[in-house]
Amino acid sequence: MKFTGNRDIAVTVESLKKSRVFYENVLGLTPKKVGEKLTVYDTGSITLYVQEQEHHPPVPSFSVENLTEARVHLETNGCEVTKEWKGALYFRDPDGNIWDINES
Question: What class is the 4-103 domain?
Fold first, then answer.
């Protein structure tokens, strides 16, 4: 099983409206996608996903060829899947860190 780092990092915020002021007016980022609970910024080096939801540390992302095989591999090796949606999932490593993987 091979996990490949990609350019995606997700951060969670209490108020997307308030956070957009910071990311756009202070950091000078331009949104490439705006939704009710999610704004996506292409910062040049990374794609930053700013999500209004329960707060947790930033989530770096990996890509895999087969998400189902990756899930089985992770769970077999002591990782807990905490959230799953079409083509992606969040998991905790044995130390509790949250990671994202998506199917490429």
Answer: alpha beta
